[in-house]
Design a protein that fits this description.
Helix content is about 0%, strand content about 45%. The chain is an all-beta fold. The chain folds into 2 domains: about 1-330, 6 Propeller (Neuraminidase); about 335-435, Sandwich (Immunoglobulin-like), CATH 2.60.40. The radius of gyration is 26 Å and the shape is elongated.
Length: about 450
């Protein structure tokens, strides 16, 4: 059996938050028309480390005078702004999240005087208001379900917040929690069946449809919130102040074991050190988060950072103004719809090497051109490695050979397709050398 090594995968994302409520900032209004205009950003030497689909990170920034929705690549480059204001009073656009298909962005804004949930096309066009409430209710923290069918969000005021969900076409508004107290920061499980929420001071898992079957996940610290599931659903990153300062922790998604501090403050650090609002990259290799790292008195500008989920150094991705609460678009591995081999039957069985080419039909919701290549060739009969030779990403030579006593030799070829977020899928196709050509 002859095998090729597959390409290694890398990437992930993170996000973080501290306060139970987001306090709107009052900034001077600046009437700029953005329309996804690029911002000057230095090219980092390690930019190729954080791969992914373009503009797949959404976050909030006040760099233009008031809070706006911004987008950037997973490596922090190509930062741009899809929102702009044409009204005489500045509004506060915050907490954006990109739909899984990349076509829409949901966010919270006080454009109508009260914080409501809004949705727009990816380029900022076709703005629609999804919720319609009145003060003192605040609607915030909208998050897309993994299938893009629902948006979960929090609504309430003071010490009473509830979790709701609504479809992106404004239908199906449903209150899914009834517990009197804090029900906040919904985070979807990868299968869409559960939500991790803050309930009072701890994290709970609830059904995403009706809020039932609550399961306690945490029991330390005075605040545990902003949960984010890893793509495989086995771990949860969240904010907690259990060690005396705001930091990102990681725990098993079933609540077992002890959470560990993912962004620990260095011993003797003399300045302000806080981390919050984690979000995983699509392949679970990195976590994006909001952090304040400052030695300066009065410098309260948080920035977006990213760090390997395995640990190590953190990388700052933003610098202009205050930047916070990054979310990462939920993208998936390519779908290999069909693989064909030409030819798929080798005859006659004359021991000659025959060129074979593969043709693939592949779809991907985030990458128009995933990279595909042959990763494995096997035979149902014992065969020497010289029975096949890979000549290109999707081409190879096969020996037209079979055992005389056998029914047929079957070669199985495995092909792998990897998108820009380093997510891969595989499929197989067979090429046969029949015993004979009789009908």
């Amino acid at each position: 059996m002859k095998k090729l090594r597959t390409l290694s995968l890398a990437i992930s994302a993170m996000t973080v938050i501290i306060s139970a409520l987001f306090v709107p900032f009052a900034f001077a209004y600046k009437n700029d028309v953005a329309d996804l205009r690029p911002l000057s950003q230095p090219v980092r030497e390690d930019a190729d480390v954080f791969s992914g689909s373009p503009h797949s990170i959404a976050f909030t920034s006040n760099r233009d005078g008031n809070n706006e929705v911004y987008l950037m690549d997973p490596d922090g480059l190509n930062q741009s702004r899809p929102t702009t204001h044409t009204t005489p009073n500045p509004s506060n656009d915050q907490r954006p999240d990109i739909s899984p298909d990349g076509s829409q962005i949901v966010f919270s804004s006080n454009r109508d005087g009260n914080f409501e949930i809004f949705i727009m096309n990816f380029d900022g066009s076709n703005l629609r208001q999804l919720t319609d409430t009145s003060l003192p209710s605040i609607n915030s923290w909208p998050r897309w379900s993994p299938d893009g069918e629902w948006i979960a969000f929090q609504s309430g005021s003071g010490t009473n917040f509830q979790i709701y969900r609504i479809r992106p076409d404004r239908t199906g508004l449903t209150q899914i929690t009834t517990h009197v107290g804090f029900n906040q920061f919904p985070g979807w499980s990868p299968d869409g069946k559960r939500l991790a929420i803050r309930r009072d001071s701890d994290l709970y898992l609830i059904n995403s449809t009706d809020g039932l079957n609550p399961g306690l996940l945490t029991s330390g610290g005075t605040i545990n919130q902003m949960a984010s599931f890893s793509p495989n659903g086995t771990r949860i990153a969240f904010f907690s102040n259990r060690e005396g300062y705001g930091s990102v922790f990681i725990m098993n998604s079933d609540g077992s074991g002890d959470p560990f501090n993912f962004t620990p403050r260095p011993g003797g650090y003399p300045g302000t050190w806080t981390s919050r609002a984690p979000a995983w990259s699509p392949n679970g290799q990195y976590i994006y988060f909001t952090a304040l790292r400052s030695f300066e008195t009065g410098n309260l500008n948080e920035q977006i950072y990213v760090k390997s989920a395995a640990g190590g150094d953190e990388t700052q991705l933003t610098s202009a103004g205050a930047n916070s609460e990054a979310t990462v678009r939920k993208v998936y591995a390519p779908t290999i719809n069909r693989v064909t081999a030409t030819p798929n039957v080798l005859w006659p069985a004359n021991n000659n090497m025959v060129p074979v080419a593969l043709a693939l039909e592949v779809t991907d919701n985030s990458d128009p051109a995933p990279v595909c290549q042959i990763t494995d060739v096997t035979s149902n009969e014992a065969a020497a490695e010289s029975a096949w030779q890979i000549t290109g990403p999707l081409t190879f030579d096969l020996r037209a050979q079979r055992f005389g006593m056998g029914t047929a030799r079957i070669y199985t070829i495995t092909v792998s397709c990897t998108n820009s977020s380093q997510l891969s899928s595989t499929a197989t196709v067979r090429v046969s050398v029949p015993h004979d050509q009789r009908k």
